[in-house]
């Protein structure tokens, strides 16, 4: 007996019949004119593992037409942890992962049970929006380890209507399971998950419009995530083995892009090893390996075509109802993706630009059209942004701040917005393609990192849990191939007219604050180092008058040991909000 059939029969889950994909000509033509005079609606389209640096946006004509040409592209947008569940929790709470304490995809350090145990099911964006008078809807993937076993213990709070993808079938494109409101889960065997999702999204959109209240709708397709098959029937709360495969596109898309290949950038399967820790030990990929990864890449592009069609369907319905001009549409992903860069097999979880710099497009009332901005934004900024768009004051405990969405505000932000991104990660990194005789899981992938983008510089600085360090000058080394702190990097050099040591000391102090920051300190970390307010960016901090402060007085970022989750006593000295550095409960020094 096929194990999935046994599973559904024994757990009493319903099997859905075929769903009809509705054509544009069949759509209702209802117009609700008074909607345009109400508070704005918001639709958030959140893809799964979509890249920016592998050019996936260039293969999405409807995203180009309806969003990029009609909105603003935020090209310096970052997730702060390159893993599905913790990134999504940060997005919906406005808090860094070290403050949500959701740092993995499954217990004990992450997943839906961890989200619930941390009290976040009663304290995240949809609840705040409902308090502000909005109807809220969600369909698609919410969090990992949100399963057919635990979906009702408890149900997710905060949604007027919901239809969630559930594990262990979230990533099975042709065998998905959705769970609507308080109903039992329903299996859709043989139907493509993105087409199912589209119909559910359109249904919620009709419900939202009919109610004539302002609404927030999230549409979260699983594409272009890998297709994941489970090799054994899991017990509730138990472990299971999984097989990763390229994503599966709908039949109508399988012929597309036959000649597409992963962009052959300098860091694609480089001749020399790069990075540190386990990354530096990776062998160069064989021609057969590269060819398979190109196939994997094409499968991702094809799987995204259903999402592209969904964007067109959403826009058409908003137009038909006369509310498009009063609706913000936000398009992003939970994290980025690499395929072959630094010799890596398909996957994420690294701090490299491919994994953390991700798509963000916003269109809506007052948002500049066909515009691009380089201001620095992160996923912790999105909850504050959405509250700002609906006229709600930001919460004091947010680790991010609202993203400017008007021409005037964006222009002002180019002058005074912060220039940093706090990046963190705990636990494993996984290869999602074929193993090619290599280890698929790398367990010592815990690190803290910092991305700084200024007017004349762009740096990435990281400290790993084995206390190896990285520093890349992305303005001159966009592929992050030359670690300036490696003994392989050659003779000492200067950065910004200063010694490498001097710049690294400033970056380390900034990361020291950010790795355990809370609230406003995450937004303005230089103020924690310089309460007088005389330092607001790296250029200011490089003044010679601060040399002793940074290079002699300050403690450094360091780990005591590698852990798979956020365990404070493993992470060395900590910066506290009262200006005191603590380590294992003992005072180290005061900041000046």
TrEMBL record:
<keyword id="KW-0325">Glycoprotein</keyword>
<dbReference type="InterPro" id="IPR012083">
    <property type="entry name" value="Arylsulfatase"/>
</dbReference>
<dbReference type="GO" id="GO:0018958">
    <property type="term" value="P:phenol-containing compound metabolic process"/>
</dbReference>
<dbReference type="InterPro" id="IPR000917">
    <property type="entry name" value="Sulfatase_N"/>
</dbReference>
<dbReference type="Pfam" id="PF00884">
    <property type="entry name" value="Sulfatase"/>
</dbReference>
<dbReference type="GO" id="GO:0008449">
    <property type="term" value="F:N-acetylglucosamine-6-sulfatase activity"/>
</dbReference>
<feature type="modified residue" description="3-oxoalanine (Cys)">
    <location>
        <position position="84"/>
    </location>
</feature>
<feature type="domain" description="Sulfatase N-terminal">
    <location>
        <begin position="40"/>
        <end position="392"/>
    </location>
</feature>
<dbReference type="GO" id="GO:0005539">
    <property type="term" value="F:glycosaminoglycan binding"/>
</dbReference>
<protein>
    <recommendedName>
        <fullName>Arylsulfatase</fullName>
        <ecNumber>3.1.6.1</ecNumber>
    </recommendedName>
</protein>
<keyword id="KW-0732">Signal</keyword>
<dbReference type="InterPro" id="IPR017850">
    <property type="entry name" value="Alkaline_phosphatase_core_sf"/>
</dbReference>
<comment type="similarity">
    <text>Belongs to the sulfatase family.</text>
</comment>
<keyword id="KW-0378">Hydrolase</keyword>
<dbReference type="GO" id="GO:0004065">
    <property type="term" value="F:arylsulfatase activity"/>
</dbReference>
<dbReference type="InterPro" id="IPR024607">
    <property type="entry name" value="Sulfatase_CS"/>
</dbReference>
């Amino acid at each position: 007996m096929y194990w999935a059939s046994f599973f559904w029969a024994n757990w009493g889950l319903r099997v859905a019949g075929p769903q009809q994909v509705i054509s544009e000509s069949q759509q209702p033509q209802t117009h609700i004119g008074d909607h345009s005079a109400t508070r704005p609606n918001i639709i958030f389209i959140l893809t799964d593992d979509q890249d920016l640096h592998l050019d996936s946006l260039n293969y999405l004509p409807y995203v180009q037409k309806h969003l990029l040409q009609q909105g603003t592209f935020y090209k310096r947008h970052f997730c702060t942890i390159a893993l599905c569940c913790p990134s999504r929790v940060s997005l919906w709470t406005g808090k860094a992962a070290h403050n949500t304490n959701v740092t993995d995809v499954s217990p004990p350090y992450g997943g839906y049970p961890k989200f619930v145990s941390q009290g976040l099911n009663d304290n995240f964006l949809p609840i705040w929006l409902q308090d502000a008078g909005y109807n809220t809807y969600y369909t698609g993937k919410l969090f990992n380890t949100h399963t057919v076993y635990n979906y009702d213990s408890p149900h997710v709070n905060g949604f007027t209507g919901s239809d969630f993808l559930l594990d262990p079938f979230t990533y099975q494109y042709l065998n998905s399971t959705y769970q609507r409101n308080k109903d039992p889960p329903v299996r859709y065997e043989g139907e493509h998950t993105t087409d199912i999702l589209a119909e559910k999204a359109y249904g919620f959109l009709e419900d939202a419009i009919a109610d004539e209240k302002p609404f927030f709708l999230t549409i979260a397709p699983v594409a272009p995530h890998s297709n994941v098959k489970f090799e054994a029937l899991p017990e509730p709360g138990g472990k299971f083995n999984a097989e990763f495969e390229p994503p599966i596109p709908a039949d109508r898309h399988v012929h597309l892009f036959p000649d597409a290949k992963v962009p052959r950038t300098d860091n694609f399967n480089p001749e020399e090893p790069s990075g540190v820790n386990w990354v530096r030990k990776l062998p160069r990929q064989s021609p057969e390996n590269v060819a398979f990864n190109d196939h994997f890449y094409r499968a991702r592009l094809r799987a995204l075509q259903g999402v592209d069609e969904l964007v067109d369907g959403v826009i058409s319905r908003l137009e038909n109802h006369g509310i498009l001009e009063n609706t913000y549409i936000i398009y992003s992903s939970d994290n980025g993706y690499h395929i072959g860069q630094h010799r890596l097999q398909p996957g994420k979880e690294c701090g490299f630009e491919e994994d953390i710099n991700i798509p963000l497009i916003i269109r809506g009332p007052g948002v500049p059209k066909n515009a691009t901005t380089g201001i620095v934004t992160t996923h912790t900024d999105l909850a504050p942004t959405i509250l700002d768009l609906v006229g709600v004051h930001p919460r004091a405990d947010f680790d991010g701040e609202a993203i400017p969405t008007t021409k005037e505000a964006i222009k002002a932000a180019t002058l005074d917005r912060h220039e940093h991104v706090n990046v963190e990660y705990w636990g494993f990194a996984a290869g999602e393609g074929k193993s090619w005789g290599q280890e698929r899981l790398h367990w010592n992938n815990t690190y803290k990192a910092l991305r700084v983008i200024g007017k004349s510089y762009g740096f990435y600085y990281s400290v790993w849990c084995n206390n190896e360090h990285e520093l890349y000058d992305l303005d001159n080394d966009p592929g992050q191939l030359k670690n300036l702190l490696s003994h392989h990097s050659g003779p000492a050099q200067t950065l910004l007219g200063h010694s490498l040591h001097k710049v690294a000391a400033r970056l380390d102090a900034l990361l020291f604050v950010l790795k355990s920051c809370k609230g406003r300190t995450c937004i303005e970390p230089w103020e924690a180092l310089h309460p007088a307010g005389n330092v607001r960016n790296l250029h200011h901090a490089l003044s010679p008058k601060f040399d002793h402060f940074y290079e002699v007085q300050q403690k450094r970022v360091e780990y005591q040991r590698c852990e798979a989750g956020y365990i404070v006593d493993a992470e060395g000295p900590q910066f506290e909000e009262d200006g005191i550095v603590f380590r294992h409960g003992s005072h180290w020094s005061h900041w000046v």
